[in-house]
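pasting Glycosyltransferase for the record, 310 residues
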Amino acid sequence: MQLSIVIPVYNSERTILPLTERLQACLAGLLFEIILVNDGSNDRSEMVCQQLEERYDNVQFISLRRNFGEFNAVLCGLNHAHGDYAVMIDDDFQNPPEAILTLVETAEMGNYDVVYSRYAQKQHHWFRNLGSWIVNTLTTYSIDKPRDLYLSSFKLIRREVVDEIVRNHGPYPYIDGLIFRVTRNVGSVEVPHNARAEGRSSYTLRKLVSLFLNVFIGYSLWPIRVFTLLGAALLSVGILSGVLLLVGWLSHIVVIKGWGIVVWAILTGLGLQLLFLGVLGEYLGKLFMAHSGLPAYVIKKKVSSSITEK
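structre below
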């Protein structure tokens, strides 16, 4: 199996049939499978996907009991993928299926583990573009993503990386966060981006906030360390100002009044509290990461020679 095409399906009764037919046509020269994951759709998507599974031998269909979210549906599809490469593509035709060949070619030429698509001009709604910018900016610091890399949902992942990603069994997967915990060998290639063929995006403020919190809290100790640094800074300022006040008072340069002592005490006390909370949070964060099910290391290649003793 060369390719596994994973498609999270949500209220796509009008687009999933033509998308599957177009994939069958443009990938006809390859050995590939299509994995349709119905993420609790409210329309006839489940019935259409069932018909496609019966019509094509290379189509798998999985229907989730309720709507779990795009990343959960993608993770489910990856768990059932068998290809040397797995490609994630949305069900709205904004990414032309023909561009999958561009992703595969880029991965093979650059020997990349992951290839992201990028767009000269995105056809998303302005709110979706704003949300993407916020998440991409956040991930630059939280998962150590290159600044110039756009984390698109249309991407290709090599088999070895897929095998590591599916080891995650947590209820809040973030596919890009899992990718950057496994590899930094990531490339990108420009592909066309079209307007939606049908309907409108399900990208809402609630989902943006949920994704923000998931990335901010679930995949990095960076928030804890920000408060640790803030506490250390406030404590340092408090100690320095206390020394200066004491020196000034002893030298009869400064007259210490009640409000000055109160401000100094609040500043120093707040710094101590934040510092202690940060240290405690560091321990809890390490414990959380240790029990997240992620590996301590990932082997890319293993070469060994057998020695026969006489």
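The chain has a mean pLDDT of 80.
The longest helix spans residues 258-290.
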